[in-house]
Structures are given as structure tokens and as C-alpha cells.
Write a structure and sequence with these properties.
The complex is a heterodimer of chains A (87) and B (299).
Chain A (H helix, E strand, L loop, with lengths): L6 E3 L7 E6 L7 H13 L6 E6 L4 H15 L14
Antiparallel strand pairs in A: 1-2, 2-3
Helix pairs in contact in A: 1-2
Chain B lengths: L10 E6 L3 H4 L9 E5 L9 H14 L6 E5 L8 H11 L3 E4 L5 H17 L8 E6 L2 H5 L1 H5 L5 E6 L1 H7 L12 H14 L2 E4 L8 H14 L3 E4 L5 H8 L3 H20 L4 E3 L2 E3 L4 H13 L8
Parallel strand pairs in B: 1-2, 1-8, 2-3, 3-4, 4-5, 5-6, 6-7, 7-8
Antiparallel strand pairs in B: 9-10
Helix pairs in contact in B: 2-3, 3-4, 9-10, 11-12
The chains are: A alpha+beta (87), B alpha/beta (299).
């Protein structure tokens, strides 16, 4: 999937994280990098700039926010691949 | 038959799926069920985000035996079908239908649940359904709603919307809810289903909350919707059989079994007249005590 536009998901509240995607890749903190890369790989996203401000989110929250931002950037709202690319 | 149809559901706690901090560890408060909300608590622009959070929470968080019910968006929205795909794929235990008015509403959800179980390889019949009645029409149709699906384990009153439909409001006395509560518990019992009461929203009035729970307990309700962990111990206290009730129920069951073998139909236990009509009630008390963890006996 290509990134078509910038998109944001999540908040800066406790136990959450905010994910912003745009069009060039860069590095993140070591703790959440793998979760994010694995999620992007499952979604087949290659060229993306992604900014994450983590406030103690669980891995499942990081995945959820990354997926949400990516799918929002493509305006995909239904027929989602639960258990497939989303897992 | 799904063994969870009749499970213990004294407290069913609403949690907003939009908030990761709320859904990550609610089991620490010990509710019997959690109701993971995709509907009213979630802002319109965050409906999609709530689903991703829900899916991964269902897949990855160990809720330690707490039942996971998902409240989907209304059947008048364009959200509910994807809500069901997400919830069933995630492995939720049940779907709560909001604003249910007819048996047809239940059948539409049932069909979508069956399709989702098939699509995602979930065991047929694993996902149960409950229906929230939020209007005069829904309450009046309680019996047909209860009988609409073998997956439906119960109905719940949603007092806020219901009282709006009646053109009144929640008074705190329960007067405005009396008719709906009575009608719903009768319909649920006639259909062999469970029945749950509406939320109590004034968190500063715990005495009022206790009285409210005592009322619905006396009426026969199986449990109550909860909006705050502080309400849980009060509900469980009222719903858990007291030691004297457990001892009496044990005596009743044993005496009826013994006297029946001797050909005696009516007798007294602790000065109270007892006959076979007391048997099922005593068995229910012991079953509830066992499910609540306060009875280890063999009856």
C-alpha cells in the first residue's frame, strides 16, 4: 500500500500513543520500532514518514493506531482484513 | 448449546473502546462482563480507531475469564456490519445490539454474526447476542425479541433513551422505569432468557445506587449495567446469597429429596412450610452461590 496523504490516529492521553503517517521513512525509539515495522510490513507499506509520540501504549495499541492512520490515509473504511494484514 | 448462555452476569461494565487506558486491564475490578463500546461513547470521527483498538485488545489482552461483550453501532448506521466483522474476528463472546425494536433486528444481527463466524473460521455458535431495549416499541416487543434467536442470552433496559421516548426523564425514584422493568423481566422469564437493568449514572449517590440494585434484584433481574468500578462490589454484595440463605437452601434441597423418597409432600424446615414448589428456587440459590464463589458444597 502506498501512502497517499498524511493521517493521524490516537491521542496523547495516558496509555495511548499518537501516530502520524506521511511520505518519508525515519527512525523511532527502540522499544516500539519493531512493533511498528512489523505492522507496516503486514500492511505492505514501504515509503512512509511516521511520527509516534508514545505515552506508555501497549503493543496492541501501537498496532491499532498505526493501522488506523494507514487505512485513514487511504480512505479505507470497510471490508477490512481482520486476522489477515490486521493481526 | 453454548454453555455461556446462562453464565453469571451480575455486573456488566461499559468501557469506551476509544480509550486504550480503559480497555487494557478492567478485569482487575472483577466485573462478570465488560461491554466494550463502539457506539455512543465513541466520537463519530473515532469510530474506525475504536475498532482497531477493540480487535487487538480482544486478540492480545487476557481478560481472565471476564466475559467480553461488544456494543455495536445501531442498525440504522453504516457501521454495524463492520463492527460485527471486527468483533467476531477478534473473538468476542457476545454482541450487544443497541436500540432493538423487533425480532427482525435480532435476526439481521444473527445473520451477520453467522456470516462473520464463517468468514473468520470461528466455531459456529460461539458468539452470543444480547439486545438492548431503548424505546417503548422495543419494550413492548420484549417477548418476540427474546424468542428471535437461540444465540440471544438476554435483554437489557437502556433507561436514558427509553425515558426520552416516554417523554419523561430519570427521576432517581425508579417510577418512570417500573412498567418497562416489570414487562421485560416477565418476557425474559417466559422465554427462558436473562434480563439486565439500566445504568445508574449518579456516581455521587451510592445509597441511591444500592436501593436501585436492591429493587431490581427483588424484581428478578440477573444483573445491572455498570459505568464505574465503584458500583461493582455493591452489586455483587446484593446478588451474592448470604450464608443463612445458603444453609436454608441446602436444607430445603436435602429435605425435599429425602421426604420425596418417603412419600411426604409437605413438611417444615426451620418452622417454614416447604413443598416441591420451593425446590427450583433453592437450587438456584445454591447455583448462584457456587458461581459467586461462596459455596463449595456438592448440591
Amino acid at each position: 500500500m502506498d501512502i497517499k496523504k498524511s493521517a493521524v490516529a490516537g491521542t496523547l492521553e495516558s496509555s495511548d500513543c499518537m501516530v502520524t503517517v506521511s511520505v518519508v521513512i525515519r527512525q523511532y525509539g527502540r522499544q516500539i520500532r519493531k512493533v511498528i515495522y512489523d505492522t507496516l510490513k503486514r500492511l505492505d507499506v514501504n515509503d512512509v514518514k511516521l511520527t509516534v509520540v508514545d505515552k506508555g501504549a501497549l503493543d496492541c495499541t501501537i498496532k491499532a493506531r498505526v493501522e488506523c492512520a494507514i487505512y485513514r490515509s487511504n480512505d479505507i473504511k470497510g471490508g477490512l482484513p481482520w486476522g489477515g494484514a490486521i493481526r | 448449546m453454548n454453555p455461556n448462555l446462562k453464565r453469571l452476569r451480575r455486573s456488566m461494565m461499559f468501557l469506551n473502546c476509544q480509550k486504550p487506558g480503559l480497555i487494557k486491564d478492567p478485569y482487575v475490578y472483577g466485573p462478570d462482563s465488560i461491554m466494550l463500546d463502539l457506539e455512543d461513547a465513541v466520537a463519530e470521527r473515532e469510530k474506525d480507531a475504536a475498532r482497531y483498538s477493540l480487535y487487538h485488545a480482544l486478540q492480545e489482552i487476557d481478560y481472565r475469564g471476564v466475559e467480553r461483550v461488544v456494543r455495536i453501532n445501531g442498525l440504522d448506521s453504516d457501521l454495524w456490519e463492520e463492527d460485527i466483522r471486527c468483533s467476531v474476528a477478534g473473538g468476542c463472546d457476545a454482541i450487544r445490539i443497541p436500540k432493538t425494536e423487533t425480532a427482525e433486528d435480532v435476526k439481521r444481527v444473527e445473520a451477520a454474526v453467522i456470516a462473520a463466524e464463517k468468514e473468520f473460521g470461528i466455531e459456529d455458535g460461539r458468539t452470543l447476542i444480547m439486545a438492548a431495549l431503548e424505546s417503548a416499541k422495543g419494550v413492548l416487543n420484549a417477548l418476540e425479541i427474546c424468542e428471535a434467536s437461540p444465540r440471544l442470552f438476554g435483554i437489557a433496559l437502556s433507561g436514558g433513551d427509553y425515558t426520552k421516548d416516554l417523554q419523561t426523564s430519570i427521576s432517581g425514584t425508579g417510577v418512570e422505569l417500573m412498567g418497562a422493568r416489570q414487562h421485560m423481566i416477565i418476557a425474559a422469564r417466559a422465554a427462558g432468557k436473562q434480563c439486565f437493568d439500566t445504568v445508574y449514572t449518579n456516581l455521587n449517590d451510592m445509597d441511591g445506587f444500592r436501593k436501585d440494585v436492591e429493587t431490581i434484584h427483588t424484581m428478578g433481574f440477573d444483573g445491572k449495567s455498570i459505568i464505574n468500578p465503584r458500583q461493582i462490589p455493591i452489586v455483587h454484595d446484593i446478588y451474592t446469597p448470604k450464608p443463612k440463605d445458603i444453609i436454608f437452601a441446602e436444607k430445603v434441597v436435602r429435605e425435599i429429596d429425602t421426604k420425596k423418597a418417603m412419600g411426604i409432600g409437605v413438611f417444615t424446615v426451620d418452622g417454614k412450610m416447604i413443598d416441591i414448589a420451593f425446590y427450583d428456587g433453592a437450587k438456584r440459590t445454591l447455583a448462584l452461590a457456587k458461581a459467586s464463589g461462596v459455596y463449595k458444597g456438592e448440591l
